Amino acid sequence: MKAKAIIKAQSTSRSGSPLLRRGAGGEVLSAKSMNKTQSISGSGSPLLWRGVGGEVMKAKTITKTQSISGSGSPLLWRWVGGEVLSAKTIIYISLLVVLITSCKKKEADKPDMEKGTVTDVCGNTYTTVKIGNQWWMAEDLRTTKYRDSSFISLLVSDTAWSHRTTGAYCNNSNSQNIVLGTFYNWYAITDPRGIAPAGWHIPGDEEWKVLEESLGMSIGEANGTGWRGTHEGEKMKVIRGTTNGWSDYGNVWNTNESGFSALAGGCRMFDGTSGNPGQYATAFWWSSSAKENQVWYRYLDYKNANVFRYYGSKNYGFSVRCVKD
Predict the structure, then answer these.
(1) Calpha distance 101→95 (Å, rounded)
(2) C-alpha distances in angstroms, 246 versus 114, 131, 140, 289?
(3) Which pLDDT tens digit goes with each residue over 4-34?
(4) Helix or strand or coil: residue 65?
């Protein structure tokens, strides 16, 4: 498709041949020295600038919206492959750039998060972050010992896991065998010896609600079950592309603006098998609050922007986040 003739002269400069501008019929519209970089971008190859002799002058990604209109032969924008770039495509690209620039500005305007560290009995050091009035660990717990230095039982067998009624853990590793965290059964997190670092504890259901409300969830929604809220889950998840981050899905855009830094680690089912889908799709965390013979937990999913609250078997293997006393 043809774009219109340019609204004002675009002077761009570099040494060498002057920039060649051609109309739809191939005629030269102007030939000026380059004194300003012009760039256009989007999906596909970058725009090709050629000198009078045919040599490539510049090929860069978009940095500025180009308005084109007026009298004279229409100007054609072409990709490196030679195909004509439509006016609609130019408008779409320009809007995309404005959106990205706006997002970056908002990101830069956000106040710095208040962060710290805490170390467990095994010597693992975790980043911590203040969210609202609470201090949370920004990483999943990885300890293999109780606070008194006694070992938590490591269980690999599915059968042994499903019948366990005392504390146990298993490692949560990704496809590269990198240990991302640890799955614990509920008996481990409520053992009187404690698994949280000194001065920290496993959050109760009410403390999870406080976190969710500080991210924008209403009290009424927080007290509900199932999927609740709007974008609180997006605010908790690490952004896409992060190691063991979240699979892409539709209109779900993870921002991690809370600093909670949730990874998609999956879970271990109550029968000992791995949850499906698991890594890159889901994440589960225990609360310390029981509901009759089951336990409240939290769940994030790559397909959802909000937060799931429900209760389940004490033999699940979930991740653990700790909150400061």
Answers:
(1) 10
(2) 25, 22, 16, 28
(3) 333 333 333 333 334 444 444 555 444 333 3
(4) coil
